[in-house]
Structures are given as structure tokens and as C-alpha cells.
Amino acid sequence: MTTTPSTRFAPSPTGRLHVGNLRTAVLNWLAARAGGGRFVLRIDDTDTERSEERYVEAIRRDLDWLGLGWDAEVRQSERADLYAEAEARLMAEGRAYECFETPEELDLRRKKQRAMGRPPVYDRAALSLSDDEKAALRQTRTPHVRFLLSGTRLTWHDLVRGEEAVELSALSDPVLRRADGQLLYTLASVVDDAEMGITHVVRGADHVTNTAAQIDLFAALGATAPAFGHHSLLTGPDGEGLSKRLGSLSLEELREGGVEPLALVSMMARLGSSAPVEPVASLDGLVADFDLSRFGRAPTRFDPEELALHSARTLRGLPFEAVATRLHALGIPEAEAQAFWSAVGPNLDRLAEAETWWALCREGTKAAIAPGDEDFVETAWTLLPPRPWGGDAWSAWTSAVKAHSGRKGRALFLPLRRALTGRDKGPDMALLMPLLRRP
Ligand code: GLU
DSSP characters for 25-71? Predict the structure, then answer.
């Protein structure tokens, strides 16, 4: 990218963000940060009936949690004047026109076209209405407004998909404003992108056709169109559409399920590209290495189980500084937190599990003793090294018990681990033992 990039993430606040939107957010954020540019959060709230403030707040909360900071925030609902002005210009130049068909009439027309084997493209009947006819229609109907597409073959170099071409004559002139007065996304988005100097738009492949119409609209408004990149859509692990499962893949649910934010971002930054999904220590690593051209057209499989594994691997690799605040919030005292993280971190799948291990350190637990091990453990207790326990306590204890009992290997170590922790598995005992306040 030669120009300093300006990108935007433009969610509609009509629901919660999910992994699908997140991919768009991450790629735009990275494109901006990788080029030292600007990332704008644009709230697409022109649909006043479906947009809700609680979703706007949820969007901000989700992005904050993920560490995807934005440099500016704009709301389409506050920019109606700009859109009206652009619409008026298009009208004056004959690139926008009023139509009076009802949805039922349009539907009927499309059915007829299909029956005759023709594509269901709007026939521009409204263009041949005389002023008198329009005036008469206005008595009983409110018009909607369409953009007059240029009808050319529109081409662009897509940042993800390569050369793209769309025959505009095969598309219906897009509606810019509905009969009820509501301005639609197509014009609002183009006006905003032009006005805010957006240089790169990354969005899902479901927008490819929109893009053709929008590039035509940029030209009609005398504006330079940004570069576009359309990432492929996510599917489930077996290639099925994700739409039905998106509820359970909302960022809020993933957060509550203990998914690491950095894991989520790094997965979205790499999935469907030629770069491997692997743990990173910070967002900076992803920024340094970002390259949109590594993504491909093929649908991208997303598997929640892979995310859980990637999240666990990411968490275990986090340096203490990255988790210090969260350990503190779990009540782990600062003086012990770092040693605690070294001992327990490599064993966690989710950070919340640290709480259980901290409870064990603080309060101890009931020893788990397998049948037949009762005497062995009873003697072992008497051989515990004197406190305070340091890094050599475990080896001192196991050596003493070994010498006394003659046991070795698993038969020696497992009962001792179970005696101290009540479990078969867990952190490195040499690191954990100095943290145990009991027995
Ligand atoms: N609000 C639109 C959407 O969520 C934005 C699309 C775009 O990026 O232009 O689909």
C-alpha cells in the first residue's frame, strides 16, 4: 500500500458482533495499523427500526475487549444532511430518479420476467413517466429513489480476489431511498467513504455486487473510489453455512466462554490465508506481518473446537505482564503472582481455571489416596521437608520418600502429587510446591 491507509469497520447495530463480522473488523484494523494509518468505527444505523443503542454499546465493548482500538467514531444517523445533499446532486444530474411502483407491483413484474426466462432486473419504467403522470401518481403514492447505473462493464482489482468484472446492465438500479423516506446503506456508505477519505474497504464476498454499484456511484459523485478487497465467507467445519450458528458464536458468548481475545484476533487475522494460525504474544506481531494478498477466494472453514485449542495455546504462551491485571482481579496477591503464573499458566485452557489452582495454593485440598497407597502416603507426610518450601522442596521430598519406600517413577510421584493436589494431573510440582500454604 503506497498511500497511508484509512479503513473503517461499519457494523449495523442490529445485533451482536460474531466471528463473521469480526473477520471484517480485524482485517480492516490490521490494514490500517500495518500502513500506519487510521481506523474508523462507523455505526451504520440508518435503519432506525432495527438499530438499538445497546448493540452500539456492545460493539464498542467487544472491540475494546479485543484491543482493536479506533481513531474516530461516526454514526450514519447523524449524517443525514450529507446524504440528502448527495442525493439532490444525483437528481439534478439525472443520475437518480423517482419511482412509484409498490413492492407488490415490483414483485409481480419480477415473477413475469422470470417466467419469460429473463433476469429480474428493474425495467426503468419510471424513467419514461411524464411530469404530469408523476404529479398524478404523487397524489396517492410517495416515490422511492433509484440510482441510474451507467450500464458499463465495471472492473476493479480486488485486493483479495484479483481482477473482478461486473456487467452493470445485469443489475437493477439500486434503491437509494425508500418510499418511507429511509435512506439506504448504498448511498450513505459511498458518501461516508468519500467524505472520510477511506482508502481501503475490506468486507465480505457477499458485497461484491454492491461494490460494482458503489464504484459507479463514486464516479457519479465525482469521488475517487477506495480500493476494495472481499474476503471469503466463513463456513462451519464441514463447509456448512454459519448463519444458523452465529448466535452461539457471538463475541459476547465467546468472551463468557473464556476465549482469549488475542487468540480470536490472531485466528481471524490468519484463517483462510497462506499464513499459519499460531499463537502470537501480542497484536503487534500480527500487524508487522499483515498482507491481504495472502487471503484467497475459497470459503474459509471455521471450527469452534480449533478456536478453543488455539485459545489455550495462546494463553499458555502469554508472558506474565500480559495476564498480571487479570490474575490480580482473581485475587492472586502481587508478591506471588509471577511465580504462580510460571507454575500454573502452562496448564490452563482458560484463564478462569487459575482461580481453582489459587484456591488450592491458599487452602490446600483433601488428599486423593488410591486404595493400597494409604500407608505409603501416611509415611510420606512425615517426610515432608521443613518450611519454607523453596524450588527444591519437591525433589527433597520425593528423594526422601524414595529412599524410605524404595518406590520410583510413577508409583512414587503420582501418589505424592495426588496427596498434595487431590488430582492426577497439574502444574510442575517443583514450581507449585513453594506456593502451597497447606498442608
Ligand atoms: N453495514 C454494512 C454491513 O454490515 C457495511 C458494509 C460495508 O463494509 O460497506 O454489511
Answer: HHHHHHHHHHTT-EEEEEE----TTT--HHHHHHHHHHHHHHT---S
Q: How far apart are CA 98 and CA 155, in angstroms?
A: 28
Residues 379, 24: Cα–Cα separation, whole Å: 61
Question: Cα dist. 391→39, 89, 316, 367, 418 in Å?
Answer: 48, 76, 21, 22, 19
DSSP 5: P
**pLDDT tens profile 44-59:** 999 999 999 999 999 9
425: helix, coil or strand?
Answer: coil
d(CA 191, CA 197): 10
- 3-state secondary structure (DSSP) of residue 154: strand
The CA radius of gyration of the chain, in Å to the nearest whole number, is 30
CA distance linking residue 311 with residue 348, whole number of Å? 10
Q: Residue 44: CB within 6 Å of ligand 1?
A: yes
Mean local confidence (pLDDT), 210-230: 98
Whether 292 and 344 have beta carbons less than 8 Å apart is answered as no
Distance 281 CA to ligand 1 centre (A): 30
- pLDDT confidence bin for 394, thresholds 50/70/90: very high
Classified as helix, coil or strand, 10 is coil
Does ligand 1 lie within 6 Å of residue 10's CB atom? yes
Residue 12 Cβ contacting ligand 1 at under 6 Å: yes
β-bridge mates for residue 38, sequence order? 6
Q: pLDDT tens-digit profile of 360-386?
A: 999 999 999 999 999 999 999 999 999
Q: Are the CB atoms for 168 and 154 separated by under 8 Å?
A: yes
Instruction: State the Cα–Cα distance between residues 49 and 69, nearest whole angstrom.
Output: 28
Distances (CA, A) of 59 to 8, 69, 188, 201, 244: 14, 12, 20, 19, 20
Can you tell me the distance from the alpha carbon of 177 to that of 166, in angstroms, rounded to the nearest whole number?
23
Side chain identity at 306, as an amino acid letter? Answer: E
